[in-house]
């Protein structure tokens, strides 16, 4: 399975920041060490073109990120300190998702060792999400006629508000978010299908609800391509999650989604999205589960 990755997915931020910036290099190293991904299947993206960014984001916002000219309010809302390296990593990650989508269309499945930044809106970023990589990839694919009907399965514990808002009037894009009902964002634009779960939801209930939702979606919508945002923040140990999945429950969730999509012979793009486990090691190993499962479905 091919994946997108570049060393510059890492950008320096303060050591005490809750965002685990080191997970990108850590996951890359872990997947190679465990022979889950072969070195020859790692494809380095170039920075996304401004033209592609502007399919989703406003010129003022995109230039503000690239040039470091965001106003104070938008900078605070982003949640990450601006730097040239942050601007570069954000452009690389968007192109990484575009590339992963194209590779999935060719191979059946591919991933980006970043991505899933679903809180970014056209004119601002928030919740540690600079650009909405999935939305840009969808727009680029549709405009290039590589794909038409696209499904976004978002299992991050935080609702994909940016993605929902961007595609609210697009019948060719089905946005599905299963998340904590009482968690961020507190204003949740409607997705095509939203499922908000109560605090403390455990494996059995989570998996039952998710399985029923996926059955419903594939009964009524027939995608050419699916994006899977496999956030690990539903874990009970997550610092920002408020749900109570075990590490085994998270693995079963990933298997459920991947198996369902592949049973319909739909190309699949794997993305990290969020996760705030107590240690970087736990964060990396939880994200790596998705790629280990995906290996079984590559042929």
UniProtKB/TrEMBL annotation:
Q: Is-annotated flag, keyword Transmembrane helix?
A: no
What Gene3D superfamilies does the record point to?
Histone deacetylase domain (3.40.800.20)
Q: Which Pfam families match?
A: Hist_deacetyl (PF00850)
Q: Where is the Histone deacetylase domain?
A: 23-287
Q: What is this protein called?
A: Histone deacetylase
Hey, which family's this protein in? Answer: Belongs to the histone deacetylase family.
Q: Which UniProt keywords are present, listed alphabetically?
A: Hydrolase
Query: Key word Secreted present in the record?
Result: no
């Amino acid at each position: 399975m091919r994946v997108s990755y570049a060393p510059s997915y890492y950008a320096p931020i303060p050591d005490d920041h809750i965002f685990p910036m080191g997970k990108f290099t850590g996951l890359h190293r872990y997947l190679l060490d465990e022979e889950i991904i072969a070195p020859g299947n790692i494809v380095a993206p170039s920075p996304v073109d401004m033209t592609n960014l502007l399919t989703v984001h406003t010129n003022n916002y995109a230039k503000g990120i690239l040039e470091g000219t965001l106003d104070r309010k938008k900078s605070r809302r982003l949640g990450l300190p601006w730097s040239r390296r942050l601007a570069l990593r954000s452009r690389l990650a968007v192109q990484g998702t575009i590339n992963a989508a194209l590779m999935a269309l060719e191979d059946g499945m591919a991933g980006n060792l970043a991505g899933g930044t679903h809180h970014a809106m056209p004119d601002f970023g928030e919740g540690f999400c600079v650009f909405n990589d999935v939305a840009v990839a969808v727009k680029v694919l549709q405009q290039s006629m590589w794909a038409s009907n696209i499904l976004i399965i978002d299992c991050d514990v935080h609702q994909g508000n940016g993605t929902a808002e961007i595609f609210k009037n697009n019948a060719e894009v089905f946005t599905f978010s299963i998340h904590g009902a009482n968690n961020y964002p507190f204003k949740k634009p409607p997705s095509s299908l939203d499922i908000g779960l109560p605090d403390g939801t455990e494996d059995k209930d989570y998996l039952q609800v998710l399985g029923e939702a996926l059955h419903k979606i594939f009964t009524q919508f027939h995608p050419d391509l699916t994006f899977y945002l496999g956030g690990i923040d539903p874990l009970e140990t997550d610092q920002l999650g408020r749900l109570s999945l075990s590490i085994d429950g998270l693995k079963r969730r990933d298997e459920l989604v991947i198996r369902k999509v592949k049973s319909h012979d739909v190309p699949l793009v794997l993305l990290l999205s969020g996760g705030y486990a107590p240690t970087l090691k736990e964060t990396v190993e939880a994200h790596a589960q998705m790629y280990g499962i995906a290996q079984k479905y590559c042929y």
